[in-house]
Amino acid sequence: MLDTLKSIVRQDANSLDIRRGLERETLRTDVKGELARTLHPDFLGSKLCHPLITTDFSESQLELITPVCKSVDEALDQLNDTHRFVYSGLQGGLLWPTSMPCSLTTEIPLAQYGSSNLARLKETYRHGLGYRYGRTMQTICAVHYNFSMPDSFWRALQKIETTSETTADFRNRRHFDLMRNFRRFSWLPTYLFGASPAVSSTFLTDRNHNLMQLDSGTWYQPDATSLRNGGLGYQSATQAGLLDICYNSLDNYINTLATAITTKHDDYTAGKPGQQLNANILQSEAEFYTSIRAKRVPDDGENLLRALHRDGVEYIEVRLLDVCPYAPVGIEADTINFIDTLLIYCLLTPSPDHDDVLCASVEANMQAVVHGGRRPTMLSDMGQRLTLTDWGTGLLDELLPIAEFLDSLTGHDDHCSALSVQARKLNQPELTPSGKMLNDMQNASFHEFALVTAREHREYFLAQPLTDSEKNYFNELTRTSMIAQQQKEAQTEPSFTEYLAEIERDYESLL
Asked: What is the CATH number of domain 2-508?
């Protein structure tokens, strides 16, 4: 593996220049930590057209996005600057610092995007999510990490492996190798970075659970790492029972998702008109809940699966990361450096196809770590039973040569240092974010812990006032995003019914 990396760099010194992007979700709250009842602030621009600031499910749920960046520092700086801009106009409001939501004592408002067909699609899709899974679940937040390698990397790797495939087929196959391995090892970043061991009691209204009461306002599992990745979070029994996606090929991935998006499901046929995009297993590929996705930026008006079918995988999106409350922007540099090292390892190490047995073990390992990862835990890998500590230590040993090589290219020790931090967590579970959070909640409820943290983050960002040039930059993005929305709404479009019918026909044409 190390020889492969060295050979790639010999062919092109810039071939390991990783492209990365961050998407951080967060709830807007008032000064007391209650979900904000206000509309998306005007100074933030059009959430339909702004390239850096939008909303997720709720009008009160911001999603802050970086452009594609060539370094970890650049990505974090970009995200930091966007937070600074948001806080410059919140007028005392807060951004909730955890994945699990703030106090939910009011109706959760759906995000609104305007009057164009695209805007109505986004809003109707969110109605559907609320109808299918409940609005409470949709207030859970995450950090998504987008990862890709430059073209020179793929050319060099294909030359080394001397395959007869087209470049596109080779890249697609190797991306799915990466994703299968990442799913196989997904329990490890969940353990290391999970930061949702407890929830507010307001989140559990009308929800079945097996949590323990920590105090009058907090429920938890003593050894949990990431309840967001378990049954209380983005899980769907319908998807688990009907979607057979184990990432063995791009064709299987596209076909399975397209089938789900065009196949009626009895549980959803009772929905009222306009309550969801359709009554199918999935309303769209965005509803597919998983730890990692194949992605490509589609053309305007095009769906993702059509873009993947035509041009293949452009980048992958890691979706299992909780928001870290100990990082003002929700993610730390060590996390990114570790994930980069792990993803390169997943790409270059042999990747067995996932049959039903292996897919089942991937899910069983994840749930064992989600609910009890900080106690001695047994996991299963290819039929072999291993302790979490032993398997994790073995993986870190295999990652070390990659980390050392990446550091040798920069003259820094960022990747090796990140591995050292994670190694300590394997032997000291109290050092994990979930362990630290529960320790900090010994004398404070979940709500109190998060509220104090949110106030500290606000002061952190307000202590970095925007320069005049930064104000002008963000104000221009606001202005141009509003113009773009106005132009979109001025266009002549088919009826919304025909618009949705054409979308479904496009999905059907992929089968």
From this structure: 3.30.590.20
